[in-house]
Amino acid sequence: MQEEKLTFGVSTHDIASCNICYAHNYDSKLGNEIGERVEKLYELKISGQVLTLCDKCLDRFREKLAQRISAEEKPEAYNGQIVLFTGTEFTATDKLGQSYRYRMIGAEVTRDGLIRLLNLDTGFLTYVEPAWFRERKIKVIQKEAREA
Ligand SMILES: [Zn+2]
């Protein structure tokens, strides 16, 4: 059986220290150790490389990962949160690169939360789901209908 290349667990070494802040799991006889004394250290193994981390540094590592992940997801989340008012005109470009111009007519209060749009290029009225906006690149032309 091939050895797992990525493992994570509590360090089983009697003498170990955190790779980042030098926190150690043993009592120093000399008392001149850098880093604080901790009970538990963790080991992250990646293809033979071993990273030893204390609780604090593990938390920081986790935070950095979460920040990175949320930064990657942001464009889509922003697109999903786009607020369209009645009368907003926008262009929607689909995955095939086809672009149409729409005007928001209103949101239907239905179980599915359908949104009513007027396709200004074809003149057809259409109903779309919220997911429709996430699947397209939306560019707002004007925020609101101007007061007459
Ligand atoms: Zn540490």
Descriptive report:
It is a single chain. By secondary structure, the protein is of the alpha+beta class. It folds into two domains: 6-73, no CATH class; 78-147, SH3 type barrels (Roll), CATH 2.30.30. 21% of the residues lie in helices and 30% in strands. A five-stranded antiparallel β-sheet has the order 7-6-5-4-8. Mean pLDDT is 83; it is low at 75-80. The chain binds zinc ion (ZN). Zinc ion is lined by residues 18, 20-21, 23, 53-54, 56-57.
The CATH architecture designation of the largest domain is Roll
Mean pLDDT: 83
What is the 3D shape? Answer: rod-shaped
The total number of structural domains is 2
Order of helices and strands: EEEHEEEEHE
- Calculate Rg over CA atoms: 27 Å
Q: Could you write a compact summary of the structure shown?
A:
The chain is of the alpha+beta class. The chain is 21% helix and 30% strand.
What characteristics describe this protein?
three-stranded antiparallel β-sheet; binds zinc ion; single chain; SH3 type barrels; five-stranded antiparallel β-sheet; 2 helices; alpha+beta; 21% helix; 2 domains; 148 residues
